[in-house]
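User: Need the bound-state model for fructose -6-phosphate:
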Amino acid sequence: MCGIVGYIGQRDAYPIIVKGLQRLEYRGYDSAGLVLYDGNDICLTKTKGKVEDLKNKAEAASCNTGQLGLGHTRWATHGIPNDINSHPHYSNSGDLVIIHNGIIENYESIKKALIKRGYTFESDTDTEVLVNLIEEVKNTEEVKLGQAVQIALNQVVGAYAIAVFDRNKPNEIVVAKLGSPLAIGIGDNEYFVASDASPFIEFTNNAVYLEDEEMAIIRPGKEIKLRKIKDDAIAYPNIQELQLNIEEIEKGGYDHFMLKEIYEQPRAILDTYRGRLLADQGLIRMAGIDQNLEKFLNANRIIIVACGTSWHAGLVAEYIFEDLARIPVEVEYASEFRYRNPVITENDVLIAISQSGETADTLAAIKMAKEKGAFVFGVCNVVGSSIARETHAGAYTHAGPEIGVASTKAFTTQITILTLIALKLAKEKGAFSDSKFHEYLTELEAIPEKVETALQSNVLIEQIAEVYKNSSNCLYLGRGYNFPVALEGALKLKEISYIHAEGYPAAEMKHGPIALIDDQMPVVVIATKKGHYEKVVSNIQEIKSRHGKIIAVVFEGDEMVSELADHIIEVPETSEPLSPLLTTIPLQLLSYHIALMRGCNVDQPRNLAKSVTVE
Ligand code: F6R
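Assistant: Bound-state model below.
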C-alpha cells in the first residue's frame, strides 16, 4: 500500500509531486508528505490527512520550490497515522531523505542495533529505521549513496519500493524495489519515479518497471543504470511504451471514480472480449490459452487464488468451469492458501486473479505454486504488474485504470475473461455442440448492451437507497451462479457505506441467518428466472413471513417475484452462466447511492487501500 512519487530534472517538482500524489491516493490516504530540494534548501512538509491537506500545508509554508522532489501518500502499517509517522523521513544527520512503500519486517532488531550506536528516532516507522541504516552503512563503509542503499537492503527482510536522495548530491535519486511496484518514467533530461505510471503519463510514454531486487541510480542527462541488489550484476532496462492515456485517469464529468467505473462497464467488457471473441467465426482466440492449451486440457484441476472481489470473480468462475467445461475447480483465498501447505502437483493449473496485480498474498501464492511445479496463469488488469510478470502466461482484462477503491469494472471484466476461458476449454473438450457454443458467444457479445440497459435503473435504485440508507444491517442472498454475486453485493455495501452486510447462499439462510430477519432487515435477493428460480422464490416467501423487506433483482418481465418483493430491479434476460455480469450492476449502484447518502467517502473508504501490498 502507500504511493510514492518522485521527480528530478529541470521543471518545478512541486506540481508534479502533488498531482502525482492525488493520482496515487487510491493506494493509501491516511497521511501524506513531500520534500523539495533546489540544491541549497530542503523543504519537507507532511501531515495526517489527505493530499489536499498536504497541499494546503505546503502552500502555507511556501514549500513549493525545487527541481528534485519526492512525495508519499500513506496507508499506515507501523505507527498510527499522524504527522510524525508520515513520510518522507530524514536520517539522523539530516542528509538523507527517504520515501518507502512496503514493510521492513526485521526493523526492530536493526533499530535496537542503531540505538546502541547512538541513533535516535522520532517516528514509530520501519522506514525511519531503514534510512538510518543506509546512513550508518554510508558512514562506516565510506561508500556513496547507491552502494550504501545496496548494502543496507541486503540486510533487511521485507518488501520495499524506495526513493532516497542525499543532500550532498542534489543531482541524484536512488531507487530500489522488492515486492512493491516501482516505475521510472524517462523524459528529456528528466526522470519520474512512481508506484504506477499515472503520475507521469502527461510527461512521457517511456517507462521502465523495476523487477524485484533491482535498484537504479537516476541522474538527469545520464542513462538509467540498473543493478541487482543481491550481487551487483548489471541489469538492462526494458523501456516500455505506455498505452495509458490521461482521460482514463480523470473523473470525466462523474462525481466519483466509482460511478464512472460502474458506467464504464459496457465499454470495459467489450474491450475485454475485443479480438478474443469472434462470434461470426465461431472462435475464441486467446494467446495465453492457445499456447498452453494442453496444460489446461490435461489439468487434474484448476486452483483459483485471489482476494476480495477478485476471489468472488473466482467463485463465479468455479461454477462456469465446472458446469460448462467439466474441469474440477477449487477457489482459495490467497492468504489462506499460501500458509496451509496445500497439495499442489505438476498437473495442477493455478489461475491467479488480481485487478492491481500487486496483492501480496496472491503474489506469494503464485510463487509457492510455481515452486511446486504448477502451471500458473494470471488474470490481471494492470499491465506490467508484478503478478502479470510472475505468472507463466496470462490474459489482461483491459478494463482500464480502476481508481475507486471499491472494485466494480474489475469484477465484471474478470468474469468476462474467465467465461471466455471456460467456453474455449468446453469447446476444445467437446463438452457442447457447435450451435450451443455459438449461442454462448452471441449471448456474451450482447452483454455490453444489456449492461447499458441495466444501468438505466439508476434512478429507481437511488429511490430504494433513500428508503434503506439508515439500516444497520443488510442481507444478500443468491443461489448458484448468483451466490458469489450476493457475496460481492454485501462486500460493496459494507466497504463503502459501513453498513454491516452479509452475503449468503439463499438456502443456507434457514441454518442461521434467518434468526436476524425482522421488519428492520432489508434482504437483497437475486432471483433470476433461470437456475433454482422456484427455490429462491420459496426463500423469499420465508423472508416475507418474517416481515423482512425484499429488494429483488430479477430478469425483465418477472411476475412471480414482483408480487412478493417490496422493490423490484429488473435486468435484461441472459443465459444463467452470464447472469452475474448483469445482476451485479444494480448492487454496485445500490451501494454507491447508500454510501453517498450517508456522507461516506465513496472513492476512498476508511481503512482501505486499492493495492494491498502487505500481507
Ligand atoms: C473490494 C476490493 C478488494 C480487492 C482485493 C484484491 O472492492 O477492491 O476486495 O478486490 O483487495 O485486489 P486485487 O484484485 O488487486 O488483487
